[in-house]
Specification:
The protein contains 4 helices and 11 strands; from the N terminus they run αββββαββββαβββα. With 205 residues, the chain is an alpha+beta fold. It has a domain at 3-141: Nucleoside Triphosphate Pyrophosphohydrolase, CATH 3.90.79.10. The longest helix is centred in the N-terminal third of the chain and has 16 residues, at 3-18.
Length: 205
Amino acid sequence: MDNVRMMETRRRIARHVAGFEKVEIGDRPGMRRAAVVLCVAERDGEACVLLIRRSPRGRNAGQWALPGGRGEPGESVEQTALREFHEELGVALSPDDVLGRLDDFPASSGFVITPVVVVPEVLGPLAPCPDEVASVHYLPLARLTGDGVVHFHDTAQGPLLQMRLGPGTTIHAPTGAILLQFREVALLGNPLRVADLRQPDWTAI
C-alpha cells in the first residue's frame, strides 16, 4: 500500500469517527475504567488493525485482545490508551495519531472499556512485552469488512457474537464487539451500537 492510499484510509476513518455520536458512560461507584487501542497500520501492502494474544499467564491468559488496559488516577482515556500501547508493544504513539473514540463498552468484568482509534503516519518496530503479550497479529481491514466475518451463534441464553476472522481466530465480546463497531462505524460509516451484545461467561473473570 502506497502512502497516498494509506493517507486516504486515514482520512476516511477520521471522517467516519468524527461524524459518530459516541456514547459515554458516566462514573459510578465501583466502576473501573480501561482503554484499548484500535491501531491501523500498513503491513505487507495492506492496511491492518493490530490484535494481540495475551500472555499465557496473568489476567485474560491466552485471549485475543486489543492493546490496552486499566486507567491510572488523573489520566485521560487517550493517555491511558497510549501508555498501555507503549507498555505492551514498546512503541510510543503521538497524541496527534489519535482520531477519536468509539462507544464506551460495559464489560461483564466490571470495566468500562473505551476504544481509541489511532492511525499513525509510521508505526515503528514493535517490541512486545512478554509478560503481557504472547503474539501480535495484523488483521487486514479488507478481511474485517469481508463477507462471513460477523456471525451470531444460537445458544440457550440467546445469540452470541462470533467475529470469524480466520482459522483459529474467532473473537467474542467484548473485543469482538469493539471490532464489530470499528468495522461498521470507522470503516463502513454505519452508526452501529454494540453495548447490548452478550458476553461469554468466561470474559467476566
